[in-house]
């Protein structure tokens, strides 16, 4: 089984990225042939500053390896090390009805938020389909927000196969329910673009500050509280054992337990959970040239795989 996912180098990783993507990737690398890439081409759809993009690419590489991506088990590379993905994206665009793209929620959401779209943003799902189909992925771990993009990928693959023969395998999404959407400090989906994130590698003070900023209702200390409508509790559940969750639930319901207490308990959990990864990250950063060399070597491996698929695709559509 081939497992593949990509992550945009769009900033500092947060709890949503960790539970929605990074953790799955690390767990799944034990279960099959695993591919992971830094989706730098996709990042260009939001026109980042080139220097910032370069830094984000390096940081993302460090973040993922620190969180457990094993370069002996996972082909971890930069999307743009394999320009064949753009070639495939172009070929796929010719079997993709415009309606598929017009219906994409993430595109519609960005427009609704006043974003003036370039055509890269519009065709984003085709490049994502190319990412997945180029490496013959069977399983694609992502957060719930990417579900529709995966459905578009499957539809594109089916259309292509109907027209040109069975070239692509049809990938499945892997979207575990319990971490479907990690809420941000304001209760919306945690996302860099909503400025509501809790970064996993923030220094202690900054981490504490973002946890303390989580929005709650304004019930007083002594009042009983509803754990199931509280963002702090929802985040705590991601880290704590069932016994700890039950204890916290009782604390909420019993009264005399303030949101400040719950936030401190959450902060402690986050801080200790990421402690070993923080250490590993610092070590990796001290050996940066070695890390970057490994990523580039992985890019060559990915390119070999990509070329095998592109030979079939070019021949199927009549380009060879
Ligand atoms: P952001 O929304 O902060 O820009 P990305 O779009 O870069 O995050 O997402 C990277 C990965 O993390 C994707 O697989 C995405 O589905 C997952 N992810 C991001 N935010 C969340 C969240 N709040 N809950 C679950 N998964 C998430
Ligand atoms: N669109 C994904 C995101 O923003 C990133 C991505 C690009 C991706 N190509 C992919 C994820 C291929 C899975 C498979 O999160």
Give a description of the structure.
With about 325 residues, the protein is mainly α. The chain folds into 2 domains: about 1-180 and about 290-315, 3-Layer(aba) Sandwich (Rossmann fold), CATH 3.40.50; about 200-275, Orthogonal Bundle (Tyrosyl-Transfer RNA Synthetase), CATH 1.10.240. The protein contains 15 helices and 5 strands. The strands form 2 sheets. It has a 3-stranded parallel β-sheet. A two-stranded parallel ribbon has the order 4-5. Strand 4 (about 140), helix 9 and strand 5 (about 170-175) form a beta-alpha-beta unit. Helix 4 packs parallel to helix 15 and helix 10 packs antiparallel against helix 13 (about 260-275). It is globular, with a radius of gyration of 21 Å. The two termini are about 30 Å apart. The structure holds adenosine-5'-diphosphate and tryptophan. The site of tryptophan has 13 residues, from strand 1 and helix 8. The site of adenosine-5'-diphosphate has 19 residues, from helix 1.
